[in-house]
């Protein structure tokens, strides 16, 4: 693409933000059919990738690179998981220090007991996601990308997107700076372009006013293959998708109650109670090795979460994560939705049957009040950055 940089055209963002988002366009750049990502990688693909400097080079954003990367991701997770099914953090197993419960154990509690249990300490719950179509359909990165890759997301959400912005717009686009890089805020890439780079990414997409319409549509489309876990409706005001295997995950922060369900891969959690000072950030050195002496001083506890496990974080607990496998994907929710009914309530058989029917018919989950408000804000479509078609 460097040879085409002379055709670069920069358009400024309209000062009111009401105009179509501006970006960097290569007028003669070919448009790539997203389906070209999903054919099996060929000998020719491998040769093209080798010429481009292998797939860890962000300049390698062609369909050939995507095919090779997706093929590599399919094998990568299995190579990291130990023979006992555990993921090691810096060569060490991680004893889970959170309280643990099954769906059956939570059902056996009264509402008040469940409320006290889930708001007191971090919890890992099993038995809430076994019937989700996502558990099988998203396990293969190629199938996941083929299913949801047509949605447009902000380029700035991903290292790969930033790399493309820098190539198209120059050094002013290397950091987040709309003045130095006009159009950067709403430039988009297809989700299909980002999934192959999962091993090097930490992408989080949430229901927020700054999202583009494609991100809202992606979160809605994802809901055709999973459901908010039982008991957790009231802490699901905001939807969340986390994708990426870059060891560095979310750094120490605190907010209202939240949950996160691992679909594929593994996440290492670091949590501390709200009455402690903010702990140090965890940048996951040496493949996530835990400094237990530092953790003791800061009051931090740990747990490795695997597919089929839902982590519930109570109000204002400090938390950070490390992505532990190259292809790690999770969905979640956070903040209180007071309109959702009984706090931590169980679901009846009619509600479960309605969910199964919705999955079978491919219908998305209905939006709550907050998500509808975001949708009604007139979300920008953004403009797509060009992609090479090799």
Topology:
Blueprint: E1 9-10, E2 24-25, H1 43-52, H2 63-80, E3 99-102, H3 103-107, H4 111-120, E4 123-126, H5 134-137, H6 141-148, E5 152-154, H7 159-169, E6 187-190, H8 191-194, E7 203-206, H9 213-222, E8 238-243, E9 258-264, E10 267-272, H10 285-288, H11 292-298, E11 301-305, E12 309-313, E13 318-323, E14 329-334, H12 349-361, H13 369-375, E15 383-384
Helix pairs in contact: 1-2
Give a concise summary.
With 390 residues, this protein is α+β, with helices and mostly antiparallel strands. 28% of the residues lie in helices and 17% in strands.
What does this structure look like?
The structure is a single chain. The protein has 390 residues and is α+β, with helices and mostly antiparallel strands. It folds into two domains: 2-80 and 155-188, no CATH class; 99-138 and 225-375, Sandwich (Jelly Rolls). It has 13 helices and 15 strands. The chain has a seven-stranded mixed β-sheet with strand order 3-4-12-9-14-8-7. α1 packs across α2. The radius of gyration is 21 Å and the shape is globular. The N and C termini lie close together (11 Å). The model is unreliable at 1-22 (pLDDT under 50).
């Amino acid at each position: 693409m460097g040879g085409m940089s002379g055709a670069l055209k920069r358009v400024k963002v309209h000062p009111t933000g009401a105009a179509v988002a501006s970006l960097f366009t290569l007028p003669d750049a070919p448009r790539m059919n997203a389906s070209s990502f999903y054919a099996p990688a060929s000998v020719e693909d491998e040769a093209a990738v080798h010429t481009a400097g292998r797939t860890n080079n962000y300049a390698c954003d062609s369909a050939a690179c995507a095919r090779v990367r997706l093929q590599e991701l399919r094998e990568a997770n299995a190579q990291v998981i130990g023979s006992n099914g555990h993921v090691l953090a810096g060569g060490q197993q991680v004893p889970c220090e959170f309280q643990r419960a099954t769906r059956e154990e939570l059902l056996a509690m009264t509402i008040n007991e469940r409320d006290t249990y889930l708001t007191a300490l971090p919890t890992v719950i099993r038995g809430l996601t076994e019937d989700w179509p996502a558990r099988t359909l998203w396990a293969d990165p190629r199938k996941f990308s083929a299913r949801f890759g047509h949605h447009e997301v902000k380029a700035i959400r991903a290292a790969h997107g930033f790399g493309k912005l820098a190539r198209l717009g120059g050094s002013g686009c290397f950091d987040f700076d709309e003045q130095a890089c006009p159009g950067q805020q709403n430039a988009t890439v297809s989700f299909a372009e980002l999934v192959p780079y999962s091993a090097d990414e930490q992408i989080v997409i949430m229901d927020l006013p700054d999202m583009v319409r494609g991100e809202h549509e992606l979160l809605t489309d994802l809901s055709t293959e999973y459901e908010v876990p039982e008991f957790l409706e009231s802490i699901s005001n905001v939807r969340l998708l986390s994708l990426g295997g870059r060891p560095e995950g979310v750094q120490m922060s605190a907010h209202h109650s939240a949950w996160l369900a691992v679909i594929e891969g593994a996440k290492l959690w670091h949590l501390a109670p709200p009455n402690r000072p903010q702990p140090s950030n965890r940048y996951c050195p040496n493949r996530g090795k835990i400094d237990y002496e530092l953790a003791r001083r800061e009051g931090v506890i740990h747990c490795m979460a695997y597919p089929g496990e839902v982590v519930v974080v109570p109000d204002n607990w400090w938390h950070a994560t490390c992505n532990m496998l190259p292809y790690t994907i999770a969905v979640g929710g956070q903040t209180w939705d007071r309109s959702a009914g009984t706090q931590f309530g169980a679901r009846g058989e009619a509600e479960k049957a309605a969910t199964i029917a919705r999955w079978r018919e491919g219908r998305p989950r209905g939006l709550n009040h907050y998500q509808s408000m975001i949708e009604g804000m007139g979300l920008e479509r953004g403009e797509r950055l060009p992609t090479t078609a090799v």
